[in-house]
Amino acid sequence: MDAPGTPKSEIVQFWNLVKGLDWWAWNNWFYAWGFSRFLLHTILFAGLLSILSLQIPNLFLFASGWLVGTAPVWLPISLLIGFYQIWIWYARSNFIFHKKPVLMEMKMPREITKSPRAMETALTNLHVPQGITTYYMRVMKGWTLPWYSLEIASFGGEIHFYVWVWKDWQKIVEATIYANYPEIELHEVEDYAQKFVYNPETQTCYGCGWRFEPYDPKKRYIDAYVMKTYIDLELDKDPKEEVKIDPLGTVLEVMGSMTKEQQMWIQILITPEFKWGKLNPSESDWSARVKNEVNKVRLLAATFSEDTKLTDLQTRMARPRPTWVHEHQLETMQRNLGKHPFAVVSRGFYISPHKDFGLRFWDMRWIWRPFANPQYMTQMRNRWFHTTMDYPWQDWRDIRWETITRRFIDAYRRRSGFYSPWEFPANVMTSELLATLYHPPSSSIKVPGLVRIESKKSSPPPNLPQ
User: Are 65 and 107 part of one and the same domain?
Assistant: First the structure.
Protein backbone atom coordinates (compact mmCIF):
# COMPACT_ATOMS: atom_id res chain seq x y z
CA MET A 1 0.00 0.00 0.00
CA ASP A 2 1.37 3.40 -0.99
CA ALA A 3 2.20 5.94 1.68
CA PRO A 4 -0.14 8.90 1.99
CA GLY A 5 0.68 11.60 -0.54
CA THR A 6 2.51 9.26 -2.94
CA PRO A 7 1.81 10.32 -6.57
CA LYS A 8 -0.12 7.73 -8.54
CA SER A 9 1.43 6.27 -11.67
CA GLU A 10 0.00 7.02 -15.11
CA ILE A 11 -1.26 3.42 -15.36
CA VAL A 12 -3.15 3.63 -12.07
CA GLN A 13 -4.64 6.99 -13.04
CA PHE A 14 -5.75 5.62 -16.41
CA TRP A 15 -7.30 2.54 -14.77
CA ASN A 16 -9.23 4.72 -12.34
CA LEU A 17 -10.36 6.80 -15.31
CA VAL A 18 -11.68 3.72 -17.11
CA LYS A 19 -13.54 2.52 -14.03
CA GLY A 20 -14.99 5.92 -13.22
CA LEU A 21 -16.72 6.59 -16.56
CA ASP A 22 -16.51 10.31 -15.81
CA TRP A 23 -16.95 12.35 -19.00
CA TRP A 24 -15.34 15.44 -17.50
CA ALA A 25 -12.34 13.39 -16.34
CA TRP A 26 -11.97 11.88 -19.82
CA ASN A 27 -11.96 15.34 -21.35
CA ASN A 28 -9.27 16.55 -18.95
CA TRP A 29 -7.14 13.43 -19.41
CA PHE A 30 -7.26 13.76 -23.19
CA TYR A 31 -6.46 17.47 -22.97
CA ALA A 32 -3.59 16.88 -20.53
CA TRP A 33 -1.80 14.82 -23.19
CA GLY A 34 -1.75 17.74 -25.59
CA PHE A 35 -4.82 16.91 -27.67
CA SER A 36 -7.73 19.29 -28.07
CA ARG A 37 -11.15 18.42 -26.72
CA PHE A 38 -12.50 19.20 -30.17
CA LEU A 39 -10.45 16.30 -31.57
CA LEU A 40 -11.89 13.95 -28.93
CA HIS A 41 -15.43 15.02 -29.73
CA THR A 42 -14.76 14.69 -33.47
CA ILE A 43 -13.49 11.12 -33.03
CA LEU A 44 -16.52 10.19 -30.93
CA PHE A 45 -18.92 11.82 -33.40
CA ALA A 46 -17.29 10.05 -36.36
CA GLY A 47 -17.48 6.73 -34.53
CA LEU A 48 -21.13 7.15 -33.60
CA LEU A 49 -21.92 8.28 -37.15
CA SER A 50 -20.23 5.17 -38.55
CA ILE A 51 -22.26 2.92 -36.24
CA LEU A 52 -25.44 4.75 -37.20
CA SER A 53 -24.68 4.36 -40.92
CA LEU A 54 -24.53 0.59 -40.44
CA GLN A 55 -27.92 0.55 -38.73
CA ILE A 56 -29.71 2.88 -41.19
CA PRO A 57 -29.31 2.19 -44.94
CA ASN A 58 -28.78 5.30 -47.09
CA LEU A 59 -28.19 7.44 -44.01
CA PHE A 60 -27.22 10.51 -46.06
CA LEU A 61 -30.43 10.46 -48.13
CA PHE A 62 -32.51 9.83 -45.01
CA ALA A 63 -30.91 12.76 -43.13
CA SER A 64 -31.18 15.08 -46.15
CA GLY A 65 -34.85 14.27 -46.61
CA TRP A 66 -35.53 14.81 -42.94
CA LEU A 67 -33.80 18.22 -43.00
CA VAL A 68 -35.67 19.35 -46.12
CA GLY A 69 -38.99 18.15 -44.77
CA THR A 70 -38.61 19.97 -41.47
CA ALA A 71 -37.04 23.11 -42.99
CA PRO A 72 -40.24 25.21 -42.59
CA VAL A 73 -39.87 24.72 -38.83
CA TRP A 74 -36.17 25.17 -38.13
CA LEU A 75 -35.03 27.39 -41.02
CA PRO A 76 -36.96 30.59 -40.04
CA ILE A 77 -35.86 30.21 -36.42
CA SER A 78 -32.22 29.71 -37.46
CA LEU A 79 -32.32 32.72 -39.79
CA LEU A 80 -33.86 34.90 -37.09
CA ILE A 81 -31.25 33.88 -34.51
CA GLY A 82 -28.45 34.30 -37.05
CA PHE A 83 -29.64 37.77 -38.06
CA TYR A 84 -29.88 38.82 -34.41
CA GLN A 85 -26.33 37.65 -33.67
CA ILE A 86 -24.94 39.34 -36.78
CA TRP A 87 -26.70 42.60 -35.91
CA ILE A 88 -25.39 42.54 -32.33
CA TRP A 89 -21.87 41.93 -33.63
CA TYR A 90 -22.14 44.79 -36.15
CA ALA A 91 -23.75 47.29 -33.76
CA ARG A 92 -21.23 46.65 -30.98
CA SER A 93 -18.26 46.70 -33.35
CA ASN A 94 -19.43 50.00 -34.80
CA PHE A 95 -19.88 51.47 -31.31
CA ILE A 96 -16.43 50.33 -30.11
CA PHE A 97 -14.76 51.47 -33.35
CA HIS A 98 -15.78 55.09 -32.71
CA LYS A 99 -14.38 55.11 -29.16
CA LYS A 100 -10.99 56.79 -28.75
CA PRO A 101 -8.71 55.03 -26.24
CA VAL A 102 -6.34 56.81 -23.90
CA LEU A 103 -3.37 55.35 -22.00
CA MET A 104 -2.36 57.18 -18.83
CA GLU A 105 0.75 56.50 -16.79
CA MET A 106 0.54 56.70 -13.01
CA LYS A 107 3.60 58.46 -11.61
CA MET A 108 3.94 57.95 -7.89
CA PRO A 109 6.02 59.73 -5.27
CA ARG A 110 8.43 57.91 -3.03
CA GLU A 111 6.11 58.26 -0.04
CA ILE A 112 2.66 56.64 -0.32
CA THR A 113 1.14 55.76 3.02
CA LYS A 114 -2.43 54.91 2.03
CA SER A 115 -3.54 51.29 2.13
CA PRO A 116 -5.14 49.49 -0.86
CA ARG A 117 -8.52 50.51 0.58
CA ALA A 118 -8.05 53.82 -1.26
CA MET A 119 -7.72 51.92 -4.54
CA GLU A 120 -10.83 49.92 -3.69
CA THR A 121 -12.76 53.16 -3.25
CA ALA A 122 -11.47 54.39 -6.61
CA LEU A 123 -12.55 51.19 -8.36
CA THR A 124 -15.96 51.34 -6.69
CA ASN A 125 -16.60 54.68 -8.39
CA LEU A 126 -16.11 52.99 -11.78
CA HIS A 127 -18.85 50.43 -11.15
CA VAL A 128 -21.71 52.15 -13.02
CA PRO A 129 -24.12 50.69 -15.64
CA GLN A 130 -23.73 53.66 -17.94
CA GLY A 131 -25.21 53.39 -21.43
CA ILE A 132 -26.94 50.00 -21.33
CA THR A 133 -29.97 50.59 -19.15
CA THR A 134 -32.51 50.12 -21.98
CA TYR A 135 -33.09 47.52 -24.67
CA TYR A 136 -32.78 50.23 -27.33
CA MET A 137 -29.28 51.16 -26.14
CA ARG A 138 -28.03 47.59 -25.80
CA VAL A 139 -29.47 46.04 -28.97
CA MET A 140 -30.42 48.72 -31.48
CA LYS A 141 -27.45 51.03 -30.90
CA GLY A 142 -24.97 48.37 -29.71
CA TRP A 143 -23.79 50.26 -26.65
CA THR A 144 -21.66 48.33 -24.18
CA LEU A 145 -20.47 48.84 -20.65
CA PRO A 146 -17.19 50.77 -20.48
CA TRP A 147 -14.19 48.67 -19.60
CA TYR A 148 -10.82 49.62 -18.22
CA SER A 149 -7.35 48.12 -18.28
CA LEU A 150 -5.07 48.14 -15.24
CA GLU A 151 -1.53 47.49 -16.45
CA ILE A 152 1.98 47.03 -15.12
CA ALA A 153 4.85 46.89 -17.61
CA SER A 154 8.56 46.29 -17.18
CA PHE A 155 10.96 47.47 -19.89
CA GLY A 156 14.40 46.11 -19.13
CA GLY A 157 13.61 46.13 -15.41
CA GLU A 158 12.07 49.63 -15.37
CA ILE A 159 8.51 49.31 -14.03
CA HIS A 160 5.59 51.53 -15.03
CA PHE A 161 1.92 51.58 -13.96
CA TYR A 162 -0.74 52.39 -16.55
CA VAL A 163 -4.50 52.84 -16.79
CA TRP A 164 -6.23 52.45 -20.17
CA VAL A 165 -9.66 54.06 -20.60
CA TRP A 166 -11.95 55.50 -23.24
CA LYS A 167 -11.51 59.21 -23.86
CA ASP A 168 -15.11 59.75 -22.67
CA TRP A 169 -14.17 58.38 -19.25
CA GLN A 170 -10.73 59.95 -18.87
CA LYS A 171 -11.87 62.82 -16.64
CA ILE A 172 -13.92 60.50 -14.44
CA VAL A 173 -10.99 58.12 -13.94
CA GLU A 174 -8.62 61.00 -13.23
CA ALA A 175 -11.04 62.48 -10.70
CA THR A 176 -11.56 59.23 -8.80
CA ILE A 177 -7.82 58.48 -8.64
CA TYR A 178 -6.86 62.01 -7.62
CA ALA A 179 -9.58 61.99 -4.95
CA ASN A 180 -8.04 58.94 -3.29
CA TYR A 181 -4.38 59.51 -4.20
CA PRO A 182 -3.87 63.29 -4.50
CA GLU A 183 -0.09 62.86 -4.57
CA ILE A 184 -0.17 60.76 -7.76
CA GLU A 185 0.29 62.24 -11.24
CA LEU A 186 -1.50 60.93 -14.33
CA HIS A 187 0.03 61.65 -17.74
CA GLU A 188 -1.30 60.67 -21.14
CA VAL A 189 1.45 58.69 -22.90
CA GLU A 190 2.06 56.79 -26.11
CA ASP A 191 0.80 53.21 -26.10
CA TYR A 192 3.79 50.95 -25.51
CA ALA A 193 1.94 47.94 -26.96
CA GLN A 194 1.18 49.76 -30.21
CA LYS A 195 4.78 50.75 -30.83
CA PHE A 196 6.16 47.30 -30.02
CA VAL A 197 7.42 45.50 -33.13
CA TYR A 198 7.61 41.73 -32.87
CA ASN A 199 10.56 40.15 -34.67
CA PRO A 200 10.40 36.32 -34.64
CA GLU A 201 13.96 36.15 -35.98
CA THR A 202 15.45 37.62 -32.80
CA GLN A 203 12.71 37.42 -30.14
CA THR A 204 10.75 34.73 -28.34
CA CYS A 205 7.45 35.74 -26.76
CA TYR A 206 5.32 33.92 -24.24
CA GLY A 207 1.72 34.85 -23.49
CA CYS A 208 -0.51 33.43 -20.79
CA GLY A 209 -4.04 34.11 -19.60
CA TRP A 210 -4.87 33.82 -15.91
CA ARG A 211 -8.15 32.57 -14.49
CA PHE A 212 -9.14 33.02 -10.88
CA GLU A 213 -10.37 29.57 -9.90
CA PRO A 214 -10.10 26.80 -7.30
CA TYR A 215 -7.99 23.71 -7.79
CA ASP A 216 -10.88 21.29 -8.27
CA PRO A 217 -11.52 21.21 -12.06
CA LYS A 218 -15.21 20.51 -11.49
CA LYS A 219 -15.44 23.82 -9.63
CA ARG A 220 -13.39 25.72 -12.19
CA TYR A 221 -15.93 28.44 -12.73
CA ILE A 222 -17.03 28.86 -9.12
CA ASP A 223 -15.33 32.12 -8.16
CA ALA A 224 -17.15 32.44 -4.85
CA TYR A 225 -14.01 31.63 -2.86
CA VAL A 226 -11.52 34.48 -2.75
CA MET A 227 -7.77 34.72 -2.60
CA LYS A 228 -5.89 36.61 0.08
CA THR A 229 -6.90 40.26 0.05
CA TYR A 230 -5.36 43.27 1.71
CA ILE A 231 -7.78 42.79 4.63
CA ASP A 232 -6.50 39.24 5.22
CA LEU A 233 -2.95 40.64 5.01
CA GLU A 234 -3.91 43.39 7.50
CA LEU A 235 -2.77 46.14 5.16
CA ASP A 236 -5.96 48.05 5.95
CA LYS A 237 -4.79 48.59 9.53
CA ASP A 238 -2.11 51.02 8.36
CA PRO A 239 0.84 49.72 10.39
CA LYS A 240 4.28 51.23 10.18
CA GLU A 241 5.77 51.13 6.69
CA GLU A 242 8.73 49.01 7.75
CA VAL A 243 6.48 46.18 9.01
CA LYS A 244 4.06 46.05 6.04
CA ILE A 245 4.15 42.86 3.99
CA ASP A 246 2.58 43.46 0.58
CA PRO A 247 2.60 40.51 -1.90
CA LEU A 248 2.60 43.04 -4.74
CA GLY A 249 6.24 43.61 -3.85
CA THR A 250 7.04 40.07 -5.02
CA VAL A 251 5.32 40.74 -8.35
CA LEU A 252 7.29 43.95 -8.84
CA GLU A 253 10.58 42.29 -7.84
CA VAL A 254 10.08 39.67 -10.56
CA MET A 255 9.31 42.35 -13.12
CA GLY A 256 12.21 44.48 -11.94
CA SER A 257 14.67 41.62 -12.48
CA MET A 258 14.29 41.73 -16.27
CA THR A 259 17.50 42.27 -18.23
CA LYS A 260 17.98 45.20 -20.62
CA GLU A 261 16.46 43.45 -23.64
CA GLN A 262 13.61 41.71 -21.80
CA GLN A 263 10.08 42.96 -21.18
CA MET A 264 7.15 41.75 -19.10
CA TRP A 265 3.62 43.11 -19.36
CA ILE A 266 0.59 42.49 -17.14
CA GLN A 267 -2.92 43.49 -18.19
CA ILE A 268 -6.09 43.27 -16.07
CA LEU A 269 -9.27 44.14 -17.98
CA ILE A 270 -12.27 45.01 -15.82
CA THR A 271 -15.87 45.96 -16.47
CA PRO A 272 -18.84 46.22 -14.10
CA GLU A 273 -20.62 42.90 -13.56
CA PHE A 274 -24.34 43.27 -14.23
CA LYS A 275 -27.11 40.94 -15.31
CA TRP A 276 -29.37 42.12 -18.11
CA GLY A 277 -32.00 40.76 -20.45
CA LYS A 278 -34.70 39.58 -18.03
CA LEU A 279 -38.16 41.08 -17.69
CA ASN A 280 -37.85 41.23 -13.92
CA PRO A 281 -34.73 42.45 -12.08
CA SER A 282 -32.78 39.71 -10.33
CA GLU A 283 -29.48 39.26 -8.56
CA SER A 284 -26.41 38.52 -10.63
CA ASP A 285 -25.22 34.98 -11.27
CA TRP A 286 -22.16 35.69 -9.14
CA SER A 287 -24.22 36.66 -6.09
CA ALA A 288 -26.28 33.49 -6.45
CA ARG A 289 -23.12 31.36 -6.68
CA VAL A 290 -21.63 32.92 -3.57
CA LYS A 291 -24.84 32.45 -1.57
CA ASN A 292 -25.05 28.84 -2.75
CA GLU A 293 -21.49 28.15 -1.59
CA VAL A 294 -22.18 29.90 1.72
CA ASN A 295 -25.11 27.56 2.32
CA LYS A 296 -22.89 24.56 1.49
CA VAL A 297 -20.26 25.66 4.01
CA ARG A 298 -22.94 26.27 6.65
CA LEU A 299 -24.37 22.79 6.07
CA LEU A 300 -20.90 21.24 6.25
CA ALA A 301 -20.16 23.08 9.49
CA ALA A 302 -23.48 21.94 11.02
CA THR A 303 -23.03 18.25 10.18
CA PHE A 304 -21.00 15.58 11.96
CA SER A 305 -18.43 13.84 9.79
CA GLU A 306 -19.06 10.20 8.88
CA ASP A 307 -16.22 8.90 11.05
CA THR A 308 -17.50 10.65 14.19
CA LYS A 309 -18.59 8.05 16.77
CA LEU A 310 -21.03 9.26 19.42
CA THR A 311 -23.20 7.50 21.95
CA ASP A 312 -26.94 8.15 22.04
CA LEU A 313 -26.53 10.51 24.99
CA GLN A 314 -23.71 12.40 23.28
CA THR A 315 -25.77 12.66 20.11
CA ARG A 316 -28.65 14.27 22.01
CA MET A 317 -26.40 16.68 23.89
CA ALA A 318 -23.65 17.49 21.39
CA ARG A 319 -23.82 19.63 18.33
CA PRO A 320 -21.24 20.14 15.60
CA ARG A 321 -19.19 23.30 15.85
CA PRO A 322 -17.72 25.10 12.84
CA THR A 323 -13.96 24.96 12.54
CA TRP A 324 -11.77 28.00 12.00
CA VAL A 325 -11.78 27.20 8.29
CA HIS A 326 -15.57 27.27 8.10
CA GLU A 327 -15.81 30.50 10.08
CA HIS A 328 -13.17 32.21 7.95
CA GLN A 329 -14.76 31.00 4.72
CA LEU A 330 -18.15 32.35 5.70
CA GLU A 331 -16.67 35.64 6.85
CA THR A 332 -14.71 36.31 3.65
CA MET A 333 -17.46 35.22 1.24
CA GLN A 334 -20.16 37.20 2.99
CA ARG A 335 -17.86 40.22 3.26
CA ASN A 336 -17.27 40.12 -0.50
CA LEU A 337 -21.00 40.01 -1.13
CA GLY A 338 -21.03 43.57 0.16
CA LYS A 339 -18.44 44.69 -2.42
CA HIS A 340 -18.96 45.71 -6.04
CA PRO A 341 -18.27 42.84 -8.49
CA PHE A 342 -16.33 43.25 -11.74
CA ALA A 343 -15.94 40.89 -14.68
CA VAL A 344 -12.21 40.36 -15.16
CA VAL A 345 -9.94 39.09 -17.95
CA SER A 346 -6.22 39.06 -17.11
CA ARG A 347 -3.14 38.11 -19.12
CA GLY A 348 0.63 38.47 -19.15
CA PHE A 349 3.28 38.77 -21.85
CA TYR A 350 7.00 37.98 -21.64
CA ILE A 351 9.41 39.14 -24.36
CA SER A 352 13.02 38.05 -24.56
CA PRO A 353 15.85 37.48 -27.04
CA HIS A 354 16.21 33.85 -28.06
CA LYS A 355 19.43 33.40 -26.12
CA ASP A 356 17.99 34.71 -22.83
CA PHE A 357 14.52 33.14 -22.93
CA GLY A 358 15.30 30.21 -20.62
CA LEU A 359 12.75 29.45 -17.92
CA ARG A 360 11.98 33.03 -16.93
CA PHE A 361 8.48 32.63 -18.36
CA TRP A 362 7.70 30.39 -15.37
CA ASP A 363 8.12 33.43 -13.15
CA MET A 364 5.30 35.13 -15.03
CA ARG A 365 3.05 32.06 -15.12
CA TRP A 366 2.98 31.91 -11.32
CA ILE A 367 3.58 35.58 -10.59
CA TRP A 368 0.32 35.84 -8.59
CA ARG A 369 1.24 32.90 -6.35
CA PRO A 370 1.78 35.08 -3.23
CA PHE A 371 -1.93 36.00 -3.33
CA ALA A 372 -3.09 32.36 -3.42
CA ASN A 373 -5.20 31.02 -0.59
CA PRO A 374 -4.21 27.39 0.17
CA GLN A 375 -7.21 27.11 2.49
CA TYR A 376 -9.57 27.23 -0.50
CA MET A 377 -7.01 26.21 -3.18
CA THR A 378 -7.85 29.40 -5.07
CA GLN A 379 -5.33 31.31 -7.11
CA MET A 380 -4.70 32.88 -10.51
CA ARG A 381 -4.06 29.86 -12.75
CA ASN A 382 -2.70 30.18 -16.28
CA ARG A 383 -5.04 28.61 -18.83
CA TRP A 384 -4.70 30.14 -22.31
CA PHE A 385 -2.37 30.99 -25.16
CA HIS A 386 1.10 29.38 -24.94
CA THR A 387 0.35 27.76 -21.58
CA THR A 388 -1.34 24.74 -23.18
CA MET A 389 1.61 23.83 -25.44
CA ASP A 390 3.68 21.24 -23.57
CA TYR A 391 4.25 18.42 -26.09
CA PRO A 392 6.20 18.38 -29.38
CA TRP A 393 3.25 16.96 -31.35
CA GLN A 394 1.19 20.05 -30.55
CA ASP A 395 3.24 22.31 -32.81
CA TRP A 396 5.17 21.68 -36.01
CA ARG A 397 7.97 24.11 -36.88
CA ASP A 398 6.57 26.61 -34.35
CA ILE A 399 3.65 27.46 -36.63
CA ARG A 400 1.06 27.47 -33.83
CA TRP A 401 3.42 29.27 -31.46
CA GLU A 402 3.92 32.17 -33.87
CA THR A 403 0.20 32.32 -34.68
CA ILE A 404 -0.73 32.45 -30.99
CA THR A 405 1.90 35.15 -30.39
CA ARG A 406 0.50 37.43 -33.08
CA ARG A 407 -3.07 36.87 -31.90
CA PHE A 408 -2.05 37.62 -28.33
CA ILE A 409 -0.36 40.89 -29.34
CA ASP A 410 -3.46 41.94 -31.28
CA ALA A 411 -5.77 41.20 -28.33
CA TYR A 412 -3.42 43.00 -25.93
CA ARG A 413 -3.19 46.11 -28.11
CA ARG A 414 -6.95 46.30 -28.51
CA ARG A 415 -7.51 45.66 -24.79
CA SER A 416 -10.11 43.23 -26.06
CA GLY A 417 -11.55 40.49 -23.89
CA PHE A 418 -15.26 41.05 -23.34
CA TYR A 419 -16.51 41.75 -26.86
CA SER A 420 -15.56 40.97 -30.45
CA PRO A 421 -13.00 40.43 -31.93
CA TRP A 422 -11.48 38.71 -28.87
CA GLU A 423 -13.80 37.27 -26.24
CA PHE A 424 -12.58 35.20 -23.29
CA PRO A 425 -14.37 33.62 -20.32
CA ALA A 426 -14.41 36.26 -17.61
CA ASN A 427 -14.02 35.82 -13.87
CA VAL A 428 -15.81 37.84 -11.24
CA MET A 429 -13.67 39.69 -8.70
CA THR A 430 -14.77 42.26 -6.19
CA SER A 431 -13.24 45.71 -5.82
CA GLU A 432 -11.47 44.44 -2.70
CA LEU A 433 -9.60 41.70 -4.54
CA LEU A 434 -8.79 43.91 -7.53
CA ALA A 435 -7.39 46.59 -5.24
CA THR A 436 -5.15 43.93 -3.69
CA LEU A 437 -3.76 42.89 -7.08
CA TYR A 438 -3.34 46.42 -8.44
CA HIS A 439 -2.63 49.48 -6.31
CA PRO A 440 0.06 52.14 -6.06
CA PRO A 441 2.88 50.51 -4.09
CA SER A 442 3.67 52.08 -0.76
CA SER A 443 7.11 53.19 0.31
CA SER A 444 7.59 49.78 1.98
CA ILE A 445 8.17 48.31 -1.51
CA LYS A 446 11.67 49.34 -2.50
CA VAL A 447 12.10 47.76 -5.93
CA PRO A 448 15.03 49.48 -7.70
CA GLY A 449 13.29 49.52 -11.09
CA LEU A 450 10.06 51.10 -9.85
CA VAL A 451 9.80 54.56 -11.41
CA ARG A 452 8.84 57.22 -8.85
CA ILE A 453 8.79 61.00 -8.94
CA GLU A 454 11.11 62.79 -6.55
CA SER A 455 8.59 64.59 -4.36
CA LYS A 456 4.93 64.97 -3.58
CA LYS A 457 2.82 67.60 -5.26
CA SER A 458 2.28 70.72 -3.19
CA SER A 459 0.04 73.76 -3.44
CA PRO A 460 0.20 77.25 -1.89
CA PRO A 461 -1.78 78.00 1.28
CA PRO A 462 -5.41 78.79 0.51
CA ASN A 463 -5.45 81.99 2.61
CA LEU A 464 -2.85 84.03 0.71
CA PRO A 465 -3.94 87.63 -0.03
CA GLN A 466 -5.36 88.12 -3.51
Answer: no
